[in-house]
Design brief:
heterodimer, A: 38 strands, about 30% strand, B: four-stranded antiparallel β-sheet, 3 helices, WD repeat (chain B), WD40_repeat_dom_sf (chain B), Eukaryotic translation initiation factor 3 subunit I (chain B), protein biosynthesis (chain B), WD40/YVTN_repeat-like_dom_sf (chain B)
Chain lengths: ~700, ~350
Amino acid sequence: MAPSFDHLRDADVDEDDYDENEIDLSDLREKYEVQLEQGFDTFVVIDGLPEVTEEQKPKLVKFLLKKLKSVGNTKEESIFMPMGDDGKSMRFAFVEYSTAAEAAAAVRQLDLVRPRGPCRGGVPTPVIEEFKEKEHMRSWLADPSGRGRDQFAMYRGETVGVFWNNEKDTPENVVDRQHWTESFIQWSPLGTFLTSVHQQGVQLWGGPSWTRQRRFAHPFVNMLDFSPGEKYVVTWSNRPISIPDEGHPQLAADDDGKNYVIWEVETGKPLRSFANLDLPTTGPDGQPLKAPPKFPWPAFKWSADDKYVARLTQGQSISVYELPRMTLLDKTTIKIEGVMDFEWAPATVQRDGNKSYEQLFCYWTPELGSNPAKVGLMSIPSKEVVRSLNLFSVSDAKLHWQSDGTYLAVKVDRHSKSKKSQATTLEIFRVREKGVPVEVVDTIKDTVINFAWEPKGDRFVIITTTEPVGQTAVPPKTSVAFFCPEKVKGNVVGNFKHLRTLEKKNSNSSDLEFYDMDFEGEKPESDKDLTANLQLMNISDHYGVTDVQWDPSGRFVTSWASAWKHAMENGYHIYDFKGEQLREEPLEKFKQWAWRPRPATLLTKEEQKQIRKNLREYSKTFEQEDAERVAGADQAVVEERRRMLDEWYAWRQSVEEELEWEREELGLSKPAEAAAKGEDAEGEVIEEIVEEVLEETEEIVQ
Amino acid sequence: MRPILLSGHERALTQIKFNRDGDLLFSVAKDQHVCAWFSHNGERLGTYKGHQGAIWTVDVNPDSTMIASGSADNTIRLWEVKTGRLLKTWEFPTAVKRVEFNEEGTQLLGVTEKRMGHLGSIVVLNINPDIDGEQSDEKELTIVCDESKATVAGWSYMNKYIIAGHEDGSVSQYDAKTGEQLENLPIHDLNMQLTDLQWSSDRTYFITASKDKTAKLVAARDLEVLKTYPSDTPLNSATMTPKKDFVILGGGQAAMDVTTTAARQGKFEARFYHKIFEDEIGRVRGHFGPLNTVAADPTGKSYASGGEDGYVRVHHFDKGFFDFSYEVERERQRAMQQQ
């Protein structure tokens, strides 16, 4: 029976009778104690004020209040301006804001300081660090061996190393560190910094001693992108930033909830942060998208000269921000209805007939109602559309700038009226020519899956496939088509013509084919008028290849099989530009290879021309140097082998002597084998005649 | 170098041994009999039947009168080579993974598996060289491996040490008389087990093979690593060729992973390295499964490899093999001759 109230014994009731003071509540206290505002999170210091007397003070306070209120909430009583003994102000003031966030905003926007808290024992004398010369960030360009080699970084296992490319020989290690990065590595576009990515943010490394140069503490960073001139970096994390209560070393409270941070490399400080945009759930045709949209990367795109950075709000507008202030150009976004994509010109282009400064970007919009689809070219900062092209029956478009910004190729996928058949056209904008003429290169029936310009050149290649692109187990059968301009008189570039299409014959997907675009041999009659002569130089097989990258000089190409994609035969191959394999190294858990980019040459056009003219002279000396080095290396190998051989025999001798001695010590005879050998040496031949009687019969002959 | 294909086993090979004269070849596999072959033509001399489980190991004594075999049926058996007569059976609580006669053939060591609450151990048995004599039941010595079990073991020169390779990648040196552990060094990568240990002809140094994809040449007296031979596949076996300063490594993708990769992935090749220069010299293809064991003829005329595919391939070296030498080696030879 459960005890009811009536049945309760005294003892049960009295159980509550205890001394309150005896209970140890310290743990609860600790947990629920209300923390009184402590610290100076809501305070800021205004320094460098004019000296005022008591009478002038209210005026100044009033003025200050006006400024201070633009950022947050404060009142007159919250401004404390200490007065000196002489009745004059001490030229600074403390201000209390209502919240810490406002104070933080004031610090950033009004360029104020936060008080550091009470100083015991007087103000410490600031220590002025002695000037130390910074390391030369571009020292690597002067290859110590004087051969102008390129560097690369390798990420394998848990180790990241930087090496000199030694062609056939083992790469020369520059630095090798365990756990240098947590997810991947990336070079800055001019090769100054090696970026490592960690859970706490990204770090930049460089200089001859590979010390840490910068730290951008963006927690859980996923991606980063440098501006072309290495002045700024944008970092992105899928997870919104969450600023802990105790603050963050680099980010402020109002960065909370943001996904992108734009940083200035020089100072290592954040300029502005942004949240992810909601991605459209409908396609350009208004139909809901089947697959969840992928986050576009890069979302923030840089202009060629690091002056602007822009982000697209799909279907609505493009926001162009001016650097380094990170304010919207003309304080407003550029509204372009339906805009699907945009791309900055990768170089500052001098348009014919345009004298003023401009940066160009192109964008495209799909068909909206009865309006045709459009490709536009916009000039910044004037926001003037300098060229626009109307297109019909467009299902998709891709924008491809040539590396100098001379051409813009727009790959337009068109559908027929019934939307049953697809075709692709290439619209090429000649940006530098007067009026930006547009040329249409033949209609391609097959699906174009990739497009690439020749860097700094005027030829391009496309990859096409006859089969629909989709998720299939078997890689689609593809072909490569080469295009180049026609030969014309004068200093102009002729029309783009199809040069050749190469069908892929077998399904072996690990072949690398090397083509010479300017083959010096015989040229087929049909290509007489074209500015290219295509010749297959070599085919190499790299089983399981996942990535390919050219070195910055275009002399070598590396292909590698990354453990990120599969675990088969991870490692790399190095080829020269002719396709001859120089080196092959299988490496356990090989993940990433990255050639170190080089900054643009400092030589003038004339100087470069001069070098090109005297190339034969130079190559003679280089070839001789190479030959000498190879001979020297061979000599070194022979020396090394000689040393190893001597070392081995010396070791053997010491062991044999020791063995002999130990045997004698123990009074043992030589082992049987050695004894047998001794007999052999004497050449004693033992002849044994074995007579075997098989059968013996006796017959009596009568 | 046309190989002789010995197809007498029905299951994966586990070990091959040549006798000292190099005329006989003994092979054991996961099927339950030991085979003896004439190495010059691949004719089978006979089989030794009696084991009740996979046979892991075999060894022949120096005068080729007896062989010992160790099996998963928890026994070591001693056989007469000539007749196939079973001379003695020793019983153990667990499987026997390795047997080896000492230099004189007077003692035999056996490595027992760690299983069912029994620790791995190395046992030493006295062998009566008289073929018709009584064999003792007594164990001369038992070394218990309480840290990491031994996978391979062998006798050093003059029976001074017993050297054992362990599952954790380390190599131990024991006093062969007392069983006391003198040394234990991490020769291979941690927890990359040693799969083979074979001796030079004078037993002063040995070669180890490991799952860490390397083979190493180690001195018996101080366990100093003399040479390292890196490869691109887990190794199961390694041997040294007499007469020429080469080593042969065998391995390949572990049998259980083979079906998940392409054929070219397997790397089922015997690899030749120069013993002193550590350079890879060449590869011999042929098996279509990983190589479980390689053995070199002590007279230097041939080598044999046994694979997961159940075949033994005996290769007799060509003239080219003997003629091949590095310039520095020839240099040295000339210098020696002049002296």
